[in-house]
Amino acid sequence: MISAENFQTLRLNEKAQIVFDLGEELFVKSINNYSIKLYVLFDFYVEIIYFPEDNKIKQIEAITDDYLAEYYIAEIDISDLLKRI
Predict the structure, then answer these.
(1) What is the pLDDT of residue 48?
(2) Rounded CA separation 75/20 (Å)
(3) Is the four-CA dihedral 82, 52, 70, 15 of positive or negative sign?
(4) Element (DSSP H or E) covering residue 25
(5) Which of 8, 30, 71, 73 holds its CA 20 to 30 A away from the CA of 44?
């Protein structure tokens, strides 16, 4: 298990490997020319910004509960997952 703080210190390719191997995808949305994917990983959430046209991941970040509430709660029901954390 890794903490959100330690996850943030990893290189992009290391973050991707951990999220794809151990994370659970919760939500995907497309905005203009990129996709945003939300994952739960251990006891925190991770946001991946992906550009399909270039087939490149731009950013992978652990996100805070405040960020989650502001940008995702209105769009998806994660109440069951919040009980697990």
Answers:
(1) 97
(2) 23
(3) positive
(4) strand 24-31
(5) 30
